[in-house]
Every structure is written in C-alpha cells, then in structure tokens.
C-alpha cells in the first residue's frame, strides 16, 4: 500500500529558479522561432516578388521598345516623297499648304503627334500643326541633336520636352536629299516625326507596381506616377544641372531630387529602397533596373514590400502558433502521457498543411510562368500575323484598282452594246441587199454593199480594241505619255453617251503635244473615271457641256475635267477622296473610284484635286511632272 501510494504521488514541483529558467527558455525559443520563420518567409516572398518584377519589367520594356521602334521608318519614308523634296527645292516660290496638309494626313494615319520639315538652316518651313497657335513653323531647331545628326547624313533620335508645346515626346529624324548622287553631297533638309509617350504611361498605371524610365543623366522623364516625372533620380550637382539645361531637353523644369534612398542591396541587381519625400515616401519597395540599349535608357520598377511584410507577419504568427502548440502539447504530455499521440497527429497535420501550401505555391508559380511564356508566344504570332496582313493589304489594293477599272467597263457596257448593235443591224441589211443584187447580176451594187460591210466591221474592231486596251493591267512602268491622245482615247469610250445626252465637248489645250511622265494605263483609268463622273453629274441638266483642258505651269502639266452640273456640296469636298464615300444612289457605285484615282496620282508623283466653279459645276484637276519633248516622242504614235 505504501508503495502504491508513493507511485500515485505527484512529482515534486520544480524549484522557483528552474521554473523561471524554463519560462525564459520557452520565451526565447518562441522569439527565435518567430524570427527565423519571418526571415525565411521574407526571403521566399522577396524571391517571388523579384520574379514577378523581372517578368513585368521585361514585358514593359519590350512594349516601350516596340511602341517607339514602329515609327523608326516613318521619317525615312517621308523624306523620299517627291512632294517633300519638290517643296524643299524652292520653298519661297511654292504654296506650303499642300505639303502641310500632306504632313497632317501622315500624322493622323500613323498616329503620331507632329510631323515637320526643317531646311538646311534648321528653320521649320512646313508642319502638320500649321493651323495651331503653337505651330512649329518659323522655329529654329539647330540646337536639337536630331537636327545635327540628320543634317550630318545620319538618322537622328532625341527625347525631351517640346519648346512650344512643353509636351514630352520622342523625336525621329531623317535627312532629305535633293542630290544624293554626288560623293560630296550634303542633306538639304531634315524631316522630323514626334511621338508622344502618354499612351505607354497609361498602360503602366494598370500594374501593381511603379514604373519609370531614366536617361543617361538619371532624369525621370517617364513614370506611371505623374508626380515622379521631371525629377532627378539622385540629386544633381551644379555642373550636371548646367549641362542638362544647356541641351534644353527639359526646358526650365526644376529637376528636383526624387528622394530615393537605397536601404540594402538584393540579389541579382535588386535593391531595397524607400523615399524620403514625394508621393512614394509612405512605403518600402523592391527596385529592379533593366537597360534599354536601343535608346540608352534605364527602365526601373518598384514593387511595394507590403506582400513581403504581410508574409513575414503571417509566417511569424504561424510559427509562433506552431511553437505554442508544440510547447502546450509538451506541457500537456508532461502532465498527461495519453495525449502524446494526439499531439503527434496534430503536428503531422500541420506539416502536411505546410507542405500542401508550399506545393500549391510552386504550382501557382509554375502556372504563371507558363502563362507568361504563352503570352510572349501569342504576341510574336500577332506580330507575324500583322506583317502578313500588311502584305495582303498591299496586294488587295493593287487588285482593287484593276477591279475598279472592270467596274467602269460594266458601266460602259450599255453604251458599247448600242455601238455594236447598230453596225450589226446595218451589216445584216447590206448582206441581204448584196445577195439580191448578185441574184439580179448587179455586181457593182453588190460590191458597194460589201464595201460598206467591211467599213462597219472595222468600226466594230476599233470599239473592241478600245475595250481590250482599257481593261489590260498596268505594267507600272514610267514612260512619256501624250496628254491629248490620252484624253481622246478616254472620250472614245463614251461616244454613245455623248451623242445620246447631246453633250457638247470643249477642248482647251495648246496645238503642240503635251507630254507627262507616268503610267499610261493608270492615267487612262483616272481620266475615264473623271469623265464618267462628269457625265453622270450632268444627267438632266439643260445644255450639258464638258470642258477638257491641259496646260503647263512651272514644269508641271495640269489636266482639268469640268462639267456644268450642280457641283459638289461644300460639306462633301473634304471627304470625296475617302474610300467608300459616295453620294450616288445605292447600287450605283461603291465610292472607290475617286479614292483609287487619288492613290494612283500619288503613286505617279502627282496629285488629284477637286473644286467647285463659281458659275456652277465641278472641276477636277490632275497635276503631273512635265516630260521634256524628245525626237523619239515626236515620232511615237499613241497606241
């Protein structure tokens, strides 16, 4: 009984100093466990945050690079335009408005901010914003590097604030050569294209990060946060500030320091930073930098450390909870041995939970990486698809010109049918008469009828030849063309409509033949389209009159087609050369004739314009380069 009584007795309580020591050890163990868990969670969260930041930074840099480089070709293409070179050759003797409007159309089509032309002295002589109060015309830009690079014969690039608009933009420039054959030839002007950067920054605002771009002087000129723009990443010395001001790149902006402070470096070029002032001074960030070699820029991304701090607290609390559970289990096991299995099972469940969470996190990271790779592949496929679409568009435009020509033939079919039916009826009558005369042995009469039949078949052959010539495809070969002969040919296609409509023709051109340089078939197509439109406009007009004229002016030949119809409404004058714009009744046309004609004139180095006559009616003018008369051209007949 005594032995049993001894075994049932509770163990003697520990001395007070031992209990205090155990309490101190348990407390220190809890703090160490929570600290260690927080450090591990911090490293894992920072690693994941850096992976996300690198992916976002790479995609954003590629987007910025692609957005700007798609405009790189534009100044070179515009610098070779004949209209630009012709105006630059003698700007004082020409009206700049056609070139201003041409540059404005290119600005609208390409989606850029401004397009302007500088002469050799750096003065702006034509610009797409000629009609705005802050127009570039008359401004001198010799201090800009895009001018000095281009006037030296290279391609220029520049970024900064506009002198007049104070808008941030990127500038592409290209030299304009009037004579590039001489070994010592120099550019005669510079064509500049300005691209705004606001659209790219708007896309950055949707990301859960701060993005900004710095130049070689560490000036922030692009940022997702507006208050960061035009700040210096680090404080500038007086010498640096004077050097930046000398370029006038950022006008008179104060370029105040951003207040960034590097708290600690991180692996693979990362940094943990904070801001002592400004809009981002309320948090800490992981900073990564990516070089954009095409432009000499640095792109930065700032990812808030809020997820890292949250992960630290969660891990510390979870570790503290686990430590408390283990400690509590140990204490209960010290008191009650029967609870040991439950404690081990609970610990195993916790380990399984942590393992499952870790596995899910790894799967999530792998899935996100796979999605990013798929997104990159889709982006590459879309770029290739767009290239193929552009090639198909060019082919479709060429086929559309031939289709429009065949559509005009369809409109002429009724008149041609009438032209052929009359000779056929006459041939039949002459043939029947010839048979009767031969039966009566009146051979002279029969021979006369057969002669009439021969003349009628020749007339039908001429009509057929005209149709074959008009329907043939263009060779796209530049050659000398007789303007008078080309107009006469176009008129022959409308002979029946001219006779039936009792339309009088007035021909106003000099006695000598006028020659132009161009594509014969395409010029015929434009003239047939303009004459057909004029005849349709004069339907129902008493005493219709079609006036066809041609004359030379400053090494150019101006061809005009004028009718005395109702004219073109003023609100339609600015739209008649747009594709699918038509005022005809449904089914009478697709609205492509004038659009295609205008495009043909641009390809031939000329232009097509429309105006209304003061006395009534519309007037269309074709302007083409004059081709000097040669002995070969004098002896060449129009086929």
From TrEMBL:
Q: Which GO terms describe its molecular function?
A: ATP binding; phosphorelay sensor kinase activity
UniProt-listed Enzyme Commission number(s): 2.7.13.3
**PROSITE patterns membership:** HIS_KIN
According to UniProt, the reaction catalysed is: ATP + protein L-histidine = ADP + protein N-phospho-L-histidine
Coiled coil ranges (UniProt) are: 372-406
- Top-level EC class: transferase
InterPro entries membership: dCache_1, HATPase_C_sf, HATPase_dom, His_kinase_dom, HisK_dim/P_dom, HisK_dim/P_sf, Sensor-like_sf, Sig_transdc_His_kin-like_C
Of the GO CC terms on this record, one is: plasma membrane
Calcium listed as a keyword: no
Membrane topology term reads: Multi-pass membrane protein
Histidine kinase domain boundaries: 415-628
According to the record, the segments passing through the membrane are 21-38, 313-334
Protein keywords: ATP-binding, Cell inner membrane, Cell membrane, Coiled coil, Kinase, Membrane, Nucleotide-binding, Phosphoprotein, Transferase, Transmembrane, Transmembrane helix, Two-component regulatory system
Where in the cell is the protein located? Cell inner membrane
What's the domain of life for this entry? Bacteria
Q: What is this protein called?
A: C4-dicarboxylate transport sensor protein DctB
Give the source species: Vreelandella boliviensis LC1
